[in-house]
Design brief:
Its cofactor is heme. By secondary structure, the protein is of the alpha+beta class. It contains 13 helices and 13 strands. The protein has one domain: Cytochrome p450, CATH 1.10.630. It has a 4-stranded mixed beta sheet with strand order 3-4-9-6, with helices on both faces. The chain starts with a strand and ends with a strand. Bound molecules: protoporphyrin IX containing FE. The site of protoporphyrin IX containing FE has 26 residues, from helix 9 and helix 13.
Length: about 425
């Protein structure tokens, strides 16, 4: 079952591979989750061409010491020129962008996010009044893109005459149909066209943003600062990154949260009560804490981390702990397996948001939904605020419930961009409460 080839990294032998195929079929994420527990005492294993790491010390060393180096898997992606996967130009650009992010007070922008949630609520209300079931996946993607538009790009994407829907079409073709579902190839005509359209759209959006005059006393917009730091081409490429990384992730998390709330009615009720009690205060100060809602969000990102792994690459031979890793190895810090391992979490396979309300929760630094170290997610505070406001306001305004059209919760993986999506759009019945 275990073969320890060469440098002592275990990998499944023929019998185990056969059994894995028998039990899990094509579900690679589930196979890898199983192997994480199976090989836990070794701290890592090799599967196909990659090395999966989950020992806390090894994982943190890999995250902090090694480069990202995703150029290979991103070579046809619109993100190939961004700092996301790059090991070479990344440090300066990332530092410059992170510094603009820090100066942009996300908390102050909470009011903008609230107006985007109100907009989303309006759309839900209009459909529910017509007795239509609601496709939360579609609406969440529009909402998440509005937030990136307002909060990061300082643009009202609704005012951009039809460009929001075109952008969404491009994202759906590139990220869902090609990378996650594999319906189309990244060399095919549809993908190439969507890439060209995305390039044109982001170019024109950037031009508009740069031409927009500030009112006297108004601070320079984020995009203008980005343009000053890295010039037009890089500003556009990194805008693509924010549009993709900033909307896909939160947009996939919202339907998962709502699905779990419909599966746990008592939890739905508790989150709703917290939202009702705090709504007035939350609208005045979007940064107030909502402990139960935040514990729910933490548990969702533990059990279903939307970024299921963090990739790194070795450009020379390295020693991690006592293990020699050869040059040019792809390492995967396997968040999905770590977050769902009984070796790290008590009752790991159970969905228990209350664990995050208890004192002394122990996970040995292995709660890493946003990564860690110098390449930690640049948008984590924005994402957190956005999810908190969306969940609280939606639950205050609506009741969500399953209908026969609601699919089961199953995920497909975009291995290139390291994100998971529910495989089908989430459909719910929604009734208004106010
Ligand atoms: C639930 C929401 C989100 C999750 C779970 C998430 C998670 C992650 C993770 C795990 C990484 C990789 C860290 C690493 O390699 O060590 C990452 C990187 C990144 N994220 Fe997020 N993210 C989310 C939302 C956002 C948002 C809203 C933005 C907004 C712009 C964003 C922008 C980025 C960028 C630019 C990077 C690349 C950082 C780098 O390579 O240095 N993310 N994110």
């Amino acid at each position: 079952l275990v073969s320890l080839k060469g440098n002592g990294i275990p990998e499944p032998g023929v019998v185990l591979k056969f059994l894995l195929n028998l039990v899990f079929g094509d579900e690679k994420l589930q196979k890898l989750e199983y192997l994480t527990d199976f090989y836990y005492k070794y701290g890592l294993f090799r599967y196909e061409t990659k090395i999966y790491i989950f020992d806390p010390k090894l994982a943190h060393t890999a995250i902090n010491k090694l480069e990202k180096g995703a150029e290979d898997y991103l070579k046809n992606s619109p993100l190939k020129e961004t700092f996301l996967g790059s090991s070479h130009k990344s440090p300066e650009v990332r530092r410059a962008i992170a510094s603009i992010f820090r100066k942009t007070s996300i908390e102050e922008r909470g009011k903008l996010i609230i107006s985007d949630v109100d907009n989303l609520s309006e759309k839900i209300l209009r459909k529910s009044e017509k007795q239509e079931n609601i496709n939360i996946t579609e609406l969440s993607l529009q909402f998440a893109m509005d937030v990136v538009g307002h909060v990061l790009l300082d643009l009202n994407l609704f005012a951009l005459e039809g460009r929001q829907m075109k952008l969404l079409d491009c994202l759906t073709t590139i990220l869902h149909r090609c990378y996650a579902l594999g319906e189309i190839s990244d060399q095919g005509q549809e993908f190439i066209q969507a890439n060209k359209d995305f390039e044109k759209l982001t170019t024109s959006i950037l031009e508009d943003a740069l031409n927009k005059e500030e009112r006297p006393g108004e601070e320079k917009t984020f995009v203008k600062k980005l343009h000053e730091v890295c010039g037009f081409a890089q500003a556009r490429d990194n805008m693509k990154l924010f549009l993709m990384a900033g909307s896909e992730t939160t947009a996939s998390t919202i339907p998962v949260i709502l699905f779990l709330l419909t599966a746990y009615p008592e939890l739905h009720h508790q989150i709703q009560s917290e939202a009702d009690q705090n709504m007035e205060q939350l609208c005045k100060d979007p940064t107030i804490s909502l402990p139960k809602t935040e514990a729910l969000m933490k548990e969702v990102l533990r059990t279903y981390p939307i970024a299921p792994f963090i990739s790194r690459r070795t450009f020379y031979n390295v020693t991690l702990g006592s293990v020699e890793i050869p040059a040019n190895s792809d390492l995967i810090v396997f968040t999905w397996g770590i977050h769902r391992s009984e070796n790290v979490w008590e009752k790991a396979k159970q969905f228990l948001p209350s664990r995050f309300l208890e004192d002394g929760l122990s996970h040995g630094g292995m709660y890493i939904p946003f990564g860690a170290g110098s390449r930690i997610c640049i948008g984590q505070h924005l994402a957190w605020l956005e999810l908190k406001l969306a969940v609280a306001i939606l639950l205050h305004k609506f009741n969500f419930s399953k209908v026969p059209e609601t699919p089961d919760l199953r995920f497909v993986v975009d291995w290139a961009h390291a994100v998971v999506h529910p495989d089908k759009d989430m459909i719910f019945k929604v009734t208004s409460r106010i």
